[in-house]
Amino acid sequence: MSFLYIKSRLHVSSTEMILCILFTLVAVPAESANILFATSFLSVSHQSVFQPIWKELSLRGHNVTAIALNPLHDKTLTNLTEIDLNYMYAQKKEVSKKWLRYFLEKPGFLQVFLKDILITYLFSIMHDNYFQQPVVQNIINGDQEFDVVIAEWLFPTLGAFSTRFKCPLIGITSLGAPIPALDSVGNPSHPVYSPDHNLPIGRELSLRDRILSTLYAIYVRVHYHLFVLPREDKTVKKYFGRDMPYIGDIERNISLLLLNRNLIIHKIMPVYPAVIELGNVRPIKVHKPLSSELKDFLDNSKNGVVYFSFGSNLLSSELPEEYIQAIIETFAKLPYNFVWKWEKDVLPGKPKNVFIQKWVSQTALLAHPNVKLFITQGGLQSLEETITNHVPIIGIPSHSDQTMNVDTAVKYGFGICIDFEDLTVETLEDAILRIMRNESYKQNVIKAEKLMNDLPTNGLNKAVWWIEYVIRHKGAPHLRSPALDIPWYQYLLLDVFALVVPILVVLIYIYYKIMKWLILLLKNCFSKNVKTKKE
Fold first, then answer.
1. Which Enzyme Commission numbers does its entry carry (predicted)?
2. What is the extent of the structural domain holding 406?
3. What is the pTM of this model?
4. Which of 240, 245, 425, 490 has a CA positioned 20 to 30 A from the CA of residue 102?
């Protein structure tokens, strides 16, 4: 435990500080580990979950090297080395309106599968670009030594770092985990009560949803093992060397999988000991200040404010024109003020009651007492922030886990869902008025917040404790699921069925023959008795 960590957590005198340090040194042997924290997904909201963890690890005295897409640039963190990849955001190609519309549309039955094929291919391109960066190459070819690798677990690709440095591997996600990620630790998943979170379905599954979920659970595994893993394996061998093990074998040696799942927002599912559900990782109560102009706008909004943002990945300024016009027309009709995260300097036709800003300190804005409603895409981080600040939502989901997140708000009674294809002036105006005029939405989100945050510890402390657990024990093979060592045909009980079914068939056949013989015997006996009586 470092002096900096103690000082940052305690408000004590110098004498008390010295005594505290001496006690700590005597009571708990100080252990400092070398940690590599590798992230790859270009999303501010996703990276915001990981930043507090590598910061806290460094405060606790560990030497942390973070391959960071969003570095903290905090010079007080002397144990933290950030490999800055923020410039990769500029390399993102602009999405054409044709592709944007495709991603906005709620996928139909077949589109779910086509969309997954496209997204997994784009992720593979992203990983190839990631590894070819000179600063990443320096890590791969360097002579550093690490005690553990913490890898963002979109795919197992970043897990190659653990093999390169011969140390335990921990996977971490900024939300839940898709089926292949759960399979990597042998965690069970069921298409009905724990469907893949990327599916555009809610909490209550219709027959169509159950069919889709079942087929998707089969498809995603076949596609993953036949196409995704071989493609990622080529990338790993290209940059780490031909002597690297198959990436599918690397992922099966993961010690822990840390999931940013919250028991309120996400559906309940069974988890093995190697799967740790975190939740509440980010310090949402810590706010960056609002601009003075925006603060004045909020302070003077006596009728209430509606905040409109689609997060850091989907730019509202690139929405199709008919959606933008429907939103503008709706806002202009209503007696409330609106703050719109608009990524351009000018919003053509902007109503007087609309304030636009390219980037907003979202937690600070949602904490303002005049903000009464949040129109959001339904991302996990946005939902955590709005629940914490007791602000109901109108959710307009488009991809990933957003549909299920918004459905959570609907279930708990603090949100309304509108699909993009249903977004009109009438539907949006009706939803806004329903929430702004009905206090029950506010009361329901307060209840949800109490459930969400009533935990023995927060996700940050839980994440750090389990990371240090893996470091202390140099891995966690004792948490390994036995399912990982069972052949797939045994896991699916195919060998059991192969033996039992033929035996049952034979027994049923024998039973059928015996019954047929008995019936024939009885018929013969009955016919003889009748014949005897007649005679």
1. 2.4.1.17
2. 292-453
3. 0.85
4. 425
